[in-house]
Prior knowledge:
Blueprint: H1 2-8, H2 13-17, H3 30-42, E1 49-52, E2 67-71, H4 74-83, E3 88-91, E4 106-110, H5 118-131, E5 134-140, E6 149-155, E7 161-167, H6 171-178, E8 181-188, E9 192-198
Parallel strand pairs: 1-2, 1-4, 2-3, 4-5
Antiparallel strand pairs: 5-9, 6-7, 8-9
Amino acid sequence: MRSYYEARAAEYDDWYLGTGRFASRDRPGWDAERDALTAALAALPPARTLDVACGTAFLTLHLRGFVVGLDQSAGMVRIAQSRLPEGLALVGDALALPFADGAFDRVLAGHFYGHLAGEERAAFLSEARRVASELVVVDSALREGEPDEAWQERELDDGSRHRVYKRWFTPDALAAELGGGDAETLLAGLWFLAVSVRFATAQ
Ligand SMILES: C[S@@+](CC[C@H](N)C(=O)[O-])C[C@H]1O[C@@H](n2cnc3c(N)ncnc32)[C@H](O)[C@@H]1O
C-alpha cells in the first residue's frame, strides 16, 4: 500500500473529482455525496485534529481548528502542506504516532482504516485512542450484495499495477469495530460513510 500511494499522490484527487482515469466511471450521485461528506466534516466543532493518513488533504482542508496531517508518503505530504497554510503536514507512521498522549482532541482517518489488516487495525486504534478522545473514520460504504472485503488490482497513469486490500462498511459495524462510545453516524451514503466514536479519556 505504501509505495502505491507514493506513486499515486499526483493523481490521487482524480478519484474524488471524477477526472483523469476516473472520468469514464459511472458513479451516480458521487459528486453530491462527496460534497455532503466535506460539508459534514466542515460542520464538526472546531478542534485540534490529527488527520492520520491525510493523503493530499482533500478532506483535511475542510476541518475547522488547528490541523495536523500525517502521511507515510512524502509526495502526499508535499501536496497536503500546500493546502494547509495554517496547519502542518508531516511524514510519519499512523501505527506509531510521533505525538504525546492526549495531544489532540480528535483523530480523523479517511479511507485508511479499511485498508488495514487485523493487527494493523488494533495498532492504529490503540494509537488513535492514545492521542485523542474522539475518532472520526471516513470510509467506503458497503452495498447490498457486494463483498465487504477484496484484494483489488489497481492501475496508475504510468501503467504500473498494484495490489491493494480494501474493505467496505456499514456505519453500525464500523462503529462497533472502532470501540469507544457515543457513536454518531455523520454520513451514511451510497459511496461514503463517516462515523464518530468517543473514548472515555485519552490514555
Ligand atoms: C486512500 S489514501 C486516503 C487519503 C485521505 N485520508 C483521503 O481520505 O483522501 C490512504 C493514505 O494512507 C497513507 N498510508 C498508508 N499507510 C500509512 C501508514 N502506515 N502511516 C501513514 N500513512 C499511511 C497513504 O500514503 C495514503 O495517502
